[in-house]
Design brief:
The chain is an all-alpha fold. It has one domain. Helices cover 68% and strands 0% of the residues. It is built from four helices and no strands. One of its GO terms (biological process) is DNA recombination. Keywords: DNA recombination. GO terms for molecular function: DNA binding. It comes from Tunturiibacter psychrotolerans.
Length: 81
């Protein structure tokens, strides 16, 4: 088993902050980093977070398809007023 390091808490905290919806710019400021790429060293997406993100993307794509279909559907005489 790997030894515990104090920075392990920092990694966990950054990961949970991203999962809570804190944007990377704000998180960088909270961690005291001047560059976002440093945040990426600490925040690690969990499998659950990735699955939720994929679900959001699927919902977005579905909504876009529906909106496109509604915009491009031929109008019938009953829908024109």
């Amino acid at each position: 088993m790997a030894q515990f390091r104090p920075y392990d808490c920092r990694h966990t905290w950054a990961t949970r902050a991203v999962e809570a919806g804190i944007d990377l710019v704000t998180l960088a400021a909270m961690l005291g980093h001047s560059k976002i790429n440093m945040v990426l060293r600490y925040a690690h997406p969990t499998q659950e977070h990735q699955s939720k993100a994929m679900d959001k993307m699927e919902q977005y794509v579905s909504a876009q398809k529906i909106a496109h279909a509604e915009r491009t559907a031929p109008q019938t005489s009953s829908s024109i007023q």
